[in-house]
Design goal:
The protein is mainly β and 450 residues long. Helix content is 6%, strand content 40%. It folds into two domains: 39-129, Immunoglobulin-like (Sandwich), CATH 2.60.40; 140-445, 6 Propeller (Neuraminidase). A six-stranded mixed sheet has the order 2-3-8-7-5-6, with no helix packed on it. A four-stranded antiparallel sheet has the order 9-34-33-32, with no helix packed on it.
């Protein structure tokens, strides 16, 4: 019992010494000098939509990479900053008043916030800037550019993009050329003399593949690396009818860039293909369908959710068809007709593009642009995605009748054309009738990534 009693007394003595030591301590505590903003965010702009903000600690700037939609100024005029993570406190304004997150702020112009570290000495000032689109991202904007010095000769011309040049072939011996490195300002020079192309070459069959141009005439094939000087290429005895499209390389499937076409044998037509690494043409065994396009072919490339690139084309055919047909490259030697429940109406001289994550078809009388999400079912494109128009307002017969507003396409009935799209997503259209040149682009495809 005495031993247990002594151990209890010893324990109390040790605790007393420890408590006394703590009470007598004069140790100084150091407060954090961290004056950085660790996280920042604002309230929702539209229903449930939050925009992510980037914090540049070196420049002490906070901004949103993805700009807010056009018209958001009315929302950010009075909005809450709902996320502001610091270790100390924040002040704002000329008098450095303590920032209250329960008060709304006006973010239409940049504001400054000063972060005070817990040590009461260290401070860092941040500039908050909210980016807002000044243009409607979903609008297709057109601009008339300088016309060709002279209208193309009789027959159809062809417009192609080669590197940073826009080439317009007006005949098999002449072409106009302009640099599009600065799309806002183009200058057409004098006619360029083309060499090496037979006089009966089909200009409308010219395609661009791997930074070279290709075309066919009389069963022969020709190519050019600058668009001016053309040479005959070896088709290994095949009677080449037309080239179709260049199928780009695909990292997912491991396939290489491939040039595709159609050749004729014993009165029948077959598909053929040759990649950039192959020395011989591969020849398909399945006969080309009679309704497959052979003239004025336009192709485009889309990328599906799996990252696989898909080539789709349209063109003119000699067969009688009830709708504009789109054809998908199942592989280099097999093309499949994409037929959904809602077909694209008959469009003379159709052109196709995969543009802004949708397929579009232009052509015909140039009244309507048709769109499709997958190239199967088609409908009229959104109102904002239209040809350049003039607005015609007609008053009602009676004073109380509403006015009728009609949008008339400036391209209506302009006739034959050719179209090309450059690396900056500009759509270039050149018209045979008067040599006029137009340039269009979907606004959101021109927004700079910050």
């Amino acid at each position: 019992m005495r031993i247990k009693f002594l151990s209890v007394i010893l324990s109390f003595l040790l605790m007393s010494i420890a408590i006394s030591s703590c009470l007598d301590s004069d140790e100084n505590y150091e407060y954090s000098s961290d004056a950085t903003i660790r996280a920042f965010g604002i309230d929702t702009i539209t229903k449930g939509v939050y925009y992510k903000f980037t914090i540049d600690q070196l420049k002490r700037e906070i901004y949103n990479v993805d700009s807010l939609p056009m018209g958001a100024d009315s929302i950010i005029k009075r909005i809450l900053i709902n996320t502001l993570t610091v270790t100390g406190w924040v002040t704002s304004g000329l008098n450095d008043t303590v920032f209250n997150m329960n008060d709304s702020v006006d973010l239409r112009e940049p504001i400054k916030l000063k972060v005070h570290a817990a040590d009461g000495i260290t401070t860092r000032e941040y500039t908050i800037k909210v980016n807002v689109h000044k243009q409607d991202p979903d609008s297709l904007i057109w601009r008339e550019m300088p016309s060709l010095p002279a209208s193309p000769a009789s027959g159809k011309q062809k417009t192609v993009v080669l590197n940073e040049n826009l080439l317009v072939y007006t005949s098999t011996t002449t072409a106009y050329r302009t640099s599009i490195s600065n799309p806002a300002s183009i200058q057409w020079g004098n006619l360029i003399t083309i060499s090496g192309l037979p006089s009966d070459a089909e200009l409308t069959s010219i395609i661009n593949f791997d930074n070279q141009l290709y075309t066919t005439v009389g069963g022969k094939a020709f190519y050019s690396d600058n668009g001016i000087n053309w040479k005959e290429m070896d088709t290994q005895g095949m009677y080449m009818v037309t080239f179709l499209a260049g199928i780009p390389a695909n990292d997912v499937t491991g396939s290489k860039s491939t040039l595709t076409g159609i050749f004729a044998k014993d009165g029948k037509k077959f598909f053929c293909a040759k990649s950039i690494e192959e020395t011989t043409w591969r020849r398909g065994e399945e006969e080309v369908s009679t309704d497959f396009p052979l003239r004025e072919i336009y192709s485009t490339v889309s990328t599906n959710k799996s990252g696989i690139k898909q080539t789709v084309l349209v063109g003119n055919t000699d067969a009688t068809i009830e709708a504009t047909q789109t054809w998908f490259a199942k592989d280099e030697l097999n093309w499949v007709n994409l037929s959904g429940e809602i077909l694209c109406p008959i469009t003379k001289n159709p052109s196709i593009m995969y543009y802004g994550n949708l397929f579009y078809i232009m052509g015909g009388e140039f009244n309507t642009i048709y769109s499709s999400s997958a190239g199967l079912d088609w409908g009229e494109a959104a109102t904002k995605f239209r040809y350049p128009t003039e607005i015609k307002v007609t008053s009602g017969e009676k004073e109380d009748d509403e006015k009728t507003i009609e949008y008339i396409s400036l391209f209506k009935d302009k006739g034959d054309y050719s179209l090309a799209i450059d690396a900056n997503h500009y759509i270039w259209i050149v018209w045979n009738q008067d040599g006029s040149v137009w340039r269009g682009r979907l606004n959101k495809l021109g927004f700079k990534q910050q």
